[in-house]
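Figure 3 (text version): structure tokens given as input.
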């Protein structure tokens, strides 16, 4: 079955950086677009970034220039490099793959202190 396992979250000060990882299994990773979403307390889950199977990336406007999504097909892993973090980036970050339906990881908490 499809499994997505996120890691790399934590507590960081405003202006700092974190790199999230999502290891995928149960899919032909190289053939699938992979996405990151996030959900802050009391808010709906929102799109962060997507990377296609060919490596093209797209970002939510508020993340452009600060976040970078990348993938390593040999490791079946997608990354989210986050820089210039702000307190409003505090959320649970989820990895997503859509194959007939949405698959989600368990999420990793990112907390940015001011």
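Below: residues designed for each position.
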């Amino acid at each position: 079955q499809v499994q997505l396992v996120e890691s790399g979250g934590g507590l960081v000060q405003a202006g700092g950086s974190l790199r999230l990882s999502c290891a995928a299994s149960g899919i032909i990773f190289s053939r699938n677009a992979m996405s990151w979403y996030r959900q802050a307390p009391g808010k709906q889950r929102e799109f962060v970034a997507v990377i296609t199977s060919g490596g093209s990336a797209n970002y939510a406007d508020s993340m452009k220039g600060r976040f970078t999504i990348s993938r390593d097909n040999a490791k079946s892993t997608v990354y989210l490099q986050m820089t210039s973090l702000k307190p409003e980036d505090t959320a649970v970050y989820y990895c997503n793959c859509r194959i007939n339906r949405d698959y989600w990881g368990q999420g990793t908490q990112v907390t940015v202190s001011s």
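The first strand starts at residue 3 and ends at 7.
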